């Protein structure tokens, strides 16, 4: 797929956001062919540049998300910086910001003025909350929505689920706004609060609780059924057994040598718990590779559980991963988020302010 044939080819995005939600959105738009101009504080840049570990002096996350972007250094607290951003917004299709409500206005860049200057602009805002200027982070948002305790009974989760999902939802919002602009000729304000990020994960669970509890997500899909859980094998490594359909669990029980458990796959009561314990004890008799080899000819939903070190080397992910360039080398990373429609740019993430002069000169001529 050539750059010109990508869905967002020719679309100019000015990204004034900071940290992960905006980075996820930027990566989505980059993969779909948009030109992303990342505006950063010229003194420090986006904090993701400094988040360890550093690869060739740059944060690994920044390298992964901002491949192919351009970097412009602007101090928005100064009149000159604010004026430069106004010029960029006037020539852009999309502007993304993640400041607390009212911050853009204090910079002298109120949303309505930017939309008046450029009626076709899609202005995407990523505040923490939709109706207040309160602050929060991923941990707060997963905690407020119930997702955190649905995932773990104590402690926290080492993945930024609210931030990532907010970025993905924001991408859908931006694409929908661009589609609307194609019909009406007008852009507009799109707000995607970070508190909304966890909500798709808990929609079904909330509905089940409203209906009295004890539903699929809590019981069967929550690991109480023998047919849908992770089992530890003799070498300490795990198998994910997703045999929800009775035919799959029946075949699994037969192949691994426990046909007596075939009728208990979806039992979430005491008998099911005993069956799960018996299956785990049985699987502990051999290493994981033994069971995978035994199951391979039978086309069942049973796969290895990898940690983050092993996952990039999983052969079934080969078509979804690729070499990620760094300033002085590369590492194996995630490929396009939209493999059928996108292509991750080949150019490595930009240096801080690398494109400032060229971009500002270009937009001054428009």
TrEMBL record:
Q: Keyword Repeat: yes or no?
A: no
This protein's source sits in the domain of life called Bacteria
Residue stretches spanning the membrane = none
InterPro entries per the UniProt record, alphabetical: CoA-transferase_III, CoA-Trfase_fam_III, CoA-Trfase_III_dom3_sf, CoA-Trfase_III_dom_1_sf
Assigned keywords, A-Z = Transferase
Q: Name one GO molecular function term.
A: transferase activity
Where is the segment annotated Disordered?
314-356
Q: What is this protein called?
A: Crotonobetainyl-CoA:carnitine CoA-transferase CaiB
